[in-house]
Every structure is written in C-alpha cells, then in structure tokens.
Automatic annotation (TrEMBL):
The lineage of its organism: Bacteria, Pseudomonadati, Pseudomonadota, Alphaproteobacteria, Hyphomicrobiales. Residues 1-45, 211-228 have a biased composition (Basic and acidic residues). Keywords: Chaperone, Coiled coil, Cytoplasm, Stress response. GO terms for cellular component: cytoplasm. This is Protein GrpE.
Length: 228
C-alpha cells in the first residue's frame, strides 16, 4: 500500500466517530502492522523472482530448447519417410493392378474365342481350307491377346495335379479316384488367372475323392513285439 493510501486510511480513521482515543490508536497500530506485513511479503516475492532468474543457466536452457527442436525434426523426418514409403507402395499397386478390371473383361473374350474353336467339328478344318484359315486367325488373335495380358502381369494358373487350394481354385465336382491323394485337382474346366499376387479369376476344377490322405498312416512302433 502506498503512502497516499496510508494517509487516506489514517484520515478515514480520524474522521470516524471513534470517541475512545485508545480504540483509535489500536486501529491505527493494526493498520500499520498490516501495511508492514504486506510490504515484507511483496519484498520477499520480488527477491524470489530475482533469485530464480539469476539461478537459471542460459546454456542449459539453450540445450533444452535445442533438444526439443531436434526431436521435432526427427519426428518430421520419420513421418516424411513413412509417407514416401506409403506413396511408393500405392504407386506400385496402382501400376500392377490398374488393368485388373480390363484384364478380367478380356478373359471373357478369350473364353469366347476358345468356345468358337471348340465348336468346329473334328475333321472339318482339313476338309474346308477357308474354315481352317478362319480358325487359324482366331487362334492367332487369342494368342496375341494372352501375350498382351502376360506383359501386363497376368499369368495363367496350371493347377492340374496340384493340391486343391480354395484361394486359387473353385471346385465344381468330385472325381472318384483312389490312385491319387484326396483333394487333388484332376480336371480343369475353366482356366484361372492371377495378376501379381492377387487372384484375377479362380480356376474351375474337378478334384479327386476317395484316394489316400496326405498325412502318412501311423507306422507300427519298431520296439513293439509282434505276436508269434
């Protein structure tokens, strides 16, 4: 409290209707004690702030700020590297699988060309040179189409004789055959294709049934004695 406020407080005390001089003196002493206490508290706060400012190490503060900035730079670099990898992966996937829908449609055209060739009766091509030339043209067209698809990452599945894989094959029927292991692809009804590591069209196949299982039968323990 400033001196002006102190004088104003004393004037207020004097102007009050306090008849007893002892009460007036006691009130003044209480006001003086309160002002003294407030001054000491304010002085202590200022001294504490000065000590705190003088005790701070500027080198340590700069080092802490430098470490924080370094951490931010490292985090930003890691985020940029992750973004670069994701972008590269997305570009590679787009490049590999962008023709998937188009390739799937072209496979239907290839199937129709094969059906047209299969519809020619046996021996008709040998008897009719015009029909033979037309069939050869269809075959060349089908081969050129498949070559173009292969250049774009499309590959034909060759599942015959392999174990049935539901990820790449679609079972259409079962073929009783005890000479081959059970669930072995015995016949391919429609060829399957993949693009990259993704299935473009599963192969429609017939699988064996009734053959031996893949796991070998349990053999008799060698130490077990056979009955005589």
């Amino acid at each position: 409290m400033s001196e002006e406020k102190k004088k104003s407080a004393e004037s207020d005390i004097n102007n009050r209707d306090i008849k007893n001089p002892a009460d007036r003196d006691a009130l003044k002493r209480a006001a003086d004690d309160f002002l003294k206490q407030r001054k000491e508290e304010a002085k202590a706060e200022v001294e504490d702030d000065q000590v705190a400012d003088e005790g701070a190490d500027p080198v340590a503060a700069m080092q802490a700020e430098n470490d924080e900035l370094k951490d931010q730079v490292l985090r930003l670099a890691a985020e940029m590297e992750n973004l670069r990898r994701r972008t590269a992966r997305d570009v590679a996937d787009a490049r590999a699988y962008s023709v998937a829908n188009f390739a799937r449609d072209m496979l239907q055209v290839s199937d129709n060309l094969n059906r047209a060739l299969q519809a020619i009766p046996d021996g008709a091509r040998e008897k009719d040179t015009g029909l033979n030339a037309l069939a050869e043209g269809v075959e060349m067209t089908e081969r050129a189409m498949m070559a173009a698809l292969e250049r774009n990452g499309v590959k034909k599945l060759e599942p015959e004789g392999q174990k049935f894989d539901p990820n790449f094959h679609q079972a259409m029927f079962e073929i009783p055959n005890t000479d081959v292991p059970n669930n072995t692809v015995q016949q391919v009804v429609q060829a399957g294709y993949v693009i990259g590591d993704r299935v473009l069209r599963p192969a429609m196949v017939g699988v064996s049934k009734g053959g031996p299982k893949e796991t070998a039968a349990k053999t008799e323990p060698q130490n077990e004695k056979k009955p005589e």
